[in-house]
Amino acid sequence: MATVTTKQIRELARQIVLKHPGGIRFAGIVEQLRQSLPDAIRTTVEAQVANHLVPAYPSELTKPSRGVYKPRSGGSQGL
Predict the structure, then answer these.
(1) How many other C-beta atoms lie within 10 A of the C-beta of residue 25?
(2) Which of 1, 4, 30, 64 is the most exposed place for a label (fewest CB within 10 A)?
(3) If we measure between CA atoms, which residue out of 73, 71, 54 comes closest to residue 16?
């Protein structure tokens, strides 16, 4: 089993959110992360999205309402 770091989880989650300019819900992010990183522990994935994603990328991501994550307008969206 390969080790998945929290930094890898946050970076992939960032890429997922940036691909959804209209926003994406928490469950959608977690589902896509679990598909891409099957060896990652579910609770770690959930915690990284819920507690650490927006603080890690404050100039690129925003959380306009509970459970919704959006790219910040004017943020770096080049993938």
Answers:
(1) 14
(2) 1
(3) 71
